[in-house]
C-alpha cells in the first residue's frame, strides 16, 4: 500500500515538472520565432546586415522581440556584427 502511494506521488511530481518544462519550452519557441521574424524584416526591409549565429538565436529565444530589437539597434549603430 505504501509503495503504491509513493509511486503515485512520484508520478504526480514528474507530471508537474514535465508540464513546467514544456510550458517554458513553448514560450522559448514562440520568442525565437518572433525574434527571427523581426531580424528578417530588419535584414530585408531596412537593409541591415545581421548575421544569424547561435548567439543571435539565443538572444531572441531568451529576450524575444525586445532582444531582437536590441540586436537590430546594435547592428544599425555598427556596434556588433
What's the layout of helices and strands?
Layout: H1 2-44, H2 54-77
Helix pairs in contact: 1-2
Strand content: under 5%
- Classify the helix fraction into a percent range: over 70%
Strand count, sense and barrel status of the largest sheet are: none
Shape: rod-shaped
Question: Describe it for me?
Answer:
The protein is mostly helical and 81 residues long. The protein has helices at 2-44, 54-77. Helix 1 runs parallel beside helix 2. The radius of gyration is 20 Å and the shape is rod-shaped. InterPro entries: BofA. Keywords: Membrane, Transmembrane, Transmembrane helix. This is Membrane protein. The chain crosses the membrane at residues 6-22, 29-48, 54-79.
In summary, what is this structure?
By secondary structure, the protein is an all-alpha fold.
Task: Give short descriptive properties of this protein.
81 residues, 2 helices, 0% strand, transmembrane helix, transmembrane
